[in-house]
Each structure stands twice: as C-alpha cells, then as structure tokens.
Here is the input.
Amino acid sequence: MTNESSIAIITARGASKRIPHKNIKEFCGKPIICYSIEAALHAGLFAEVMVSTDDEEIARTAIEAGAKVPFMRSAETADDYASTDDVIMEVLKKYEEQGRTFGTFCCLYPTAPFVTPQKLQKAMELLQTADSVMPVVAFSYPPQRCVIVNGQGELRMKWPEHAKSRSQDLEPYYHDCGQFYCCKTALFMEYGTTDLPHTVPMFMKELEVQDIDNPDDWEIAELKYRKVMGLA
Here is the structure.
C-alpha cells in the first residue's frame, strides 16, 4: 500500500436532463470539463487527476485533456440519488483496492470554469490547518429580508422584524459555490462527508460563481467568464 500526497477527483456522470451532455458541452471554445481538469493539472499539487464517470464519451474527453479514468463509475453512484460524498467514497475505496491511498483530496465539479490553479493552491494551503475547505460566496441580497407568498397569493415578509433593518447591519449569509471541496482523507473516511467539524471557508467573488443548471445559467456563466478573462 502506497500513501500518496493528494488526488483530484472530478465527478462527471453522463446523465443530464436539462442540458444534454452538459459535462462535455462546449463552453467558450472547449468542453467545460476541461477547465477543471486543466486547473487541477496545472496546480502542481496532485499525484493523480482523475475523472469519475459512467459515460464513455466523457471518459474519452477527459483522457484527451490529460486526466486519468482508471475505472468507470458504478450504477449505484451514477443515478439521481447518489451524493457527491457517495462518489468520493467509491473512488477512494477503488484506489485502496489498487494499493493506493491519499492523505488529502480535492473534489472538483466538471462544470466549474472559474476554478484556477491558483485557487486550488490557496484552498490546499488552507487545508493544512483545517479538516475541510469549502469555497463560498455571500448572498447578493440579505436573505433576512426575503418575501414569501401566503395561501392567498399575497406577498409577505418572511421575517417582518427585519422590515426596517439596513442591509449592512444584517449578518452576512453565504452559500456553497458548487465548484470544489478540499478535504483530509482520513477524516472524510471517518465521517463519510466533506462537511467536517473544522470546515473553513474560502471566500469567492460573485462574478466568479455561477450555478449551471439550465440553458440560461449556461449563458450567464459564459458572459461572466468572458468578463473575468477580458474576452467580453
């Protein structure tokens, strides 16, 4: 059994209902998964950069981009109910069967074009004094001042006590960027999740964060990417 420093795991199953072939769809000139693969490779941190997929076309694209696909994802972790944690666990156990273990890992999503080698380097540096690192971004509007629709179809403040609160006086709330997670392997194996007791944030700019769940999201992400990269 060899214990290696770190592995990058890119999770890319084949099924995508709202955006067909989403994980290998062209994004600003190349398959979107290539951005995550290239960021991981160029970070210079990982003994292995691998893609977990159940799709042969994704596997071919990943290998052409420089990633490894040493085994295909199982049916159990390729359905709509498997979590990212389930996929990570399967990957790490498959490597253990091959006699390879890793002290830390970084799990990247295949639709994360804003990830850069520098961001991964910063996250892995933060991991040295943490259990897990999660990139987060602040909600652009204070959730405490949200409105809901009641049973009569009328708008009401969810928390009316904040009706007159100034935005700058409210506690900032953050959400997961949906880009990557860095984690210490032993603790992940113990708890079965990347949400560990000492998870620390890595703060991201809103311009460099975009969930891509439908065609409108895709278009917004491309606009943001061109802006960030000076291509607009």
